[in-house]
Amino acid sequence: MPDASADAFLALVAGRRGHFRLESGHHGALWLDLDPLFADARGVAPFVTALAAAIRPYAPHVVCGPLLGGAFLAQLVARELDAEFAFAERHMPTDSHGMYRAQYRLPPALAARVRGRRVAVVDDVMSAGSAMRGTVAELRAHGAEPVVVGALLVLGDAGAAHFDAQGIPVVSPARSAYALWNPGECPLCAAGAPLEDAAS
């Protein structure tokens, strides 16, 4: 059952029910259109402030987010924390298959700036955490120290469990239950529901 904060956040975005292939490769029954989220600056502001407050104790030097929504959020959080801002760009290899195929790359000018620095990684919403995983891996490859990950809304447990296992705390002002399925275990596939590729 969504908490009140999750309900308030979900009121800011358009959601669709159906059968979706997500960026991680998982299947899900809910798709959120997050593109217009930051157009409502006043509506999203309380969530940004709450997330920044949760990140502050980790004292990041840099706040980094995956494009698009994560980068918009990273700018806002960095401003609240008086930290630097960085972003990672999504690359989808054409010859890869399976789960967690998307890769994230820092622009060269930013890659040099994160080495040896404490970084908070943020995204608008996290479910499986595909974009966050890719961003954390890229930051580590450039010598950064990811100290916390955060999202305005955490859907389900998959992404949080991954980062918990790595010893990276997960913070969020809102959480909600969310079902993700591996393709071979998806009940919507078994029922013959048409599949829409939400990651493209």
From TrEMBL:
Pfam families linked to this entry: Pribosyltran (PF00156)
Classification via InterPro entries: PRTase-like, PRTase_dom
Residues covered by the Phosphoribosyltransferase domain: 58-153
KW Glycosyltransferase (keyword) present: yes
Highest taxon above the source species: Bacteria
Record-level Gene Ontology MF annotations: glycosyltransferase activity
Keywords of this entry: Glycosyltransferase, Plasmid, Transferase
Signal sequence annotation: none
Protein name, UniProt field: Phosphoribosyltransferase
Organism of derivation: Gemmatirosa kalamazoonensis
Classification of source organism: Bacteria, Pseudomonadati, Gemmatimonadota, Gemmatimonadia, Gemmatimonadales
